[in-house]
Amino acid sequence: MELKAGKFRPEHLGRLNFYVAAVNDMLRLPRQAPTVGIWCAGPGTSALCATLSMVPLNP
């Protein structure tokens, strides 16, 4: 889990995507569903949420 405070920067989503990929690659067991990363903008921004999930191309 990572929490950010302050103005959104595009690299925040890039970093979250990196973390999701790393967990899937190094920690997730084959029987587990793919890891999901959720990012939501807070007050002072438009209500925007993004969900990142690394789904294997060859299951």
Q: Given the structure, what is the number of helices? A: 1
Write the element-wise H/E pattern from the N-terminal end onward.
HEE
Dominant shape: elongated
Instruction: Give the C-alpha Rg.
Output: 13 Å
What report would you give on this structure?
The chain has 59 residues and is an alpha+beta fold. It is built from one helix and two strands. A hairpin with an 8-residue loop joins β1 (36-40) and β2. The longest helix has 17 residues, at 10-26. A two-stranded antiparallel ribbon has the order 1-2.
Q: Helices, strands, pairings?
A:
Elements: H1 10-26, E1 36-40, E2 49-53
Antiparallel strand pairs: 1-2
What can be said about this structure in brief?
The protein is α+β, with helices and mostly antiparallel strands. It is 29% helix and 17% strand. It contains 1 helix and 2 strands, in the order H-E-E.
Features:
single chain, 59 residues, alpha+beta, 17% strand, elongated
